[in-house]
# Entry
Amino acid sequence: MDEMSLKEGISLVKRYNKMTPKERDQIKRQRFYAMVTFARKHNPLYAKLYQNLGVNFFMRDVPYVERDYLIANKKDWLSDEIIHMPVNEAINTVRSFSYDSDYARFLFHGSRYVIISSTDGALQQAAWSKSTSVLSVFLPIEEMVSRLNELRPAFLWAYPSTLEKLLEQKRSGILSISPVLIIAGGESLSDELRASLIDAFDSTVQATYSSAEFGIVASECQMGHLHVNDDWIIIEKADVNGKPCAEGDEPDKILITNMFKTDYPIIRMTLPDSVHIHDKMCPCGNPSPWISITSAKDDIIRFTADNGEDVSIHIDEFSSVLKDIKGLTGYQILIYTNNSISVRMEVEDDSAKGILFLQAEQIIRRFLKDKKITASTITLDADTPLRNEQSGKLKNVLDCRD
Ligand SMILES: [Zn+2]
# Structure
């Protein structure tokens, strides 16, 4: 089957927007059924998983699957045979625009779409349509800037940590692009960075809940709420057995289904992040469900305070602690056992690294002291900040304890 054009994508989305709730449910059921049928026929992993599933089934009958299981069985999960469903990232692109005027400007500016992400591995390769340029997040900044200046995207998707680097380049006049829309995904976008990006690029800046693996799951509306692209993505609240939650019950798992990725199907898979699904309708008028990304387990770091008690610190709070040091262009704080810490630094001027480290050390000690924690040792790591080898995400704080 052929890939869908952007125009066809738009028309599908627009048609869905006009449907009654009953019609929407019906089309989602059809797409879900088609996806499951496809997966059990073409994908060895799902063929095994669904061997006891009858021909007629409801969504709740389809076994849920842990994401770790899919990753561990990647060989069976990723199909060699890539058959595209008649829909592609066009859908997600269209969904990302919460202002019609932005969308019109995007088309007017040539609809060029650039994603800066990890380009390693089959997952990422398979995720994007042909009409999109993908730049590796690992490119040296000079090369990334020169490629972007060539491509002049009207739509740019990147991690906030990458956007921060591009912001410096834009401010210094080396980067000359002015995308209509900048989408931040994969990491959390701070209000401060959002404001600086709007100011420097004169673009609409939106947060999304997205990853190379799932595509854009939810896009921000004008109220700042993340609406699920629910015509092609289903997010469910489930109990411990993967069955739908009774109303009012706290879910044990949140499951995600993507109804158009056939190369590595994601059907009722546990989400790695902690997501809250809101029951009330959003005042913006968009009937699609909206979600908030709540703290994932990994986002909390626990220290032992001086009085022996456990203290929890949210990673976001710790992440920004060194951001005001002048001359420090990037950093990563590594936490080891016994409150021992080391810091990776990227600096403008190498000869100032020693002095900047002393400042960083003082700030970290003060930050922890306010929480009644004494850092045992703080040392300077020889490396500069390193991105995660697979996802390309950059975390300012890494928990390196076992
Ligand atoms: Zn809304």
Remarks:
- The radius of gyration is 23 Å.
